[in-house]
Amino acid sequence: MSNYYREPSFREIERALGLTRPEILSLIFLCFRDGITVTDICEFSGHLKANISRAAIALEKKALIDRRPHDDDQRRQLLFVTPAGRALHDRFMPGLVQREADMLACLTDTERQQFNDILRKMCAHARDWSDLSVTEPSDSA
């Protein structure tokens, strides 16, 4: 289902605004929670660190984010969205929100609430299953 939502939307943003998918994802994360690391984005999104690192470098070159050293660990870089980055995010985000609304329009209010509750529950337990092997049987099988 995510392919019907994400793929056409991200393709259009790539074409219209010249951002790669990891750049789009990084801007979305930073506009939601500014001052995080590449590792934070990777842990939450499941994307490869190399791809998100390249996106951070590209976004910085485009003046869409700033990177600053962490106060406690100078080796870690915190990412902050710039006003230009937020403005670009604000150009594409309404389209993503509308696409989500269109996708969920076939559900009743009760079904939408149930769907949201199920997604929240799955996300809350993602660490329980996200690292499980797909080639080795688990104890629960």
From TrEMBL:
A GO molecular-function annotation: DNA-binding transcription factor activity
InterPro entries for the chain: HTH_MarR-typ (IPR000835), Metal_resp_HTH_trans_reg (IPR052067), WH-like_DNA-bd_sf (IPR036388), WH_DNA-bd_sf (IPR036390)
Every HTH marR-type domain range: 1-124
Keywords per UniProt: DNA-binding, Transcription, Transcription regulation
A Pfam family it matches: MarR_2
Protein's name according to its UniProt entry: MarR family transcriptional regulator
Protein species of origin: Pollutimonas subterranea
Source organism phylogeny: Bacteria, Pseudomonadati, Pseudomonadota, Betaproteobacteria, Burkholderiales
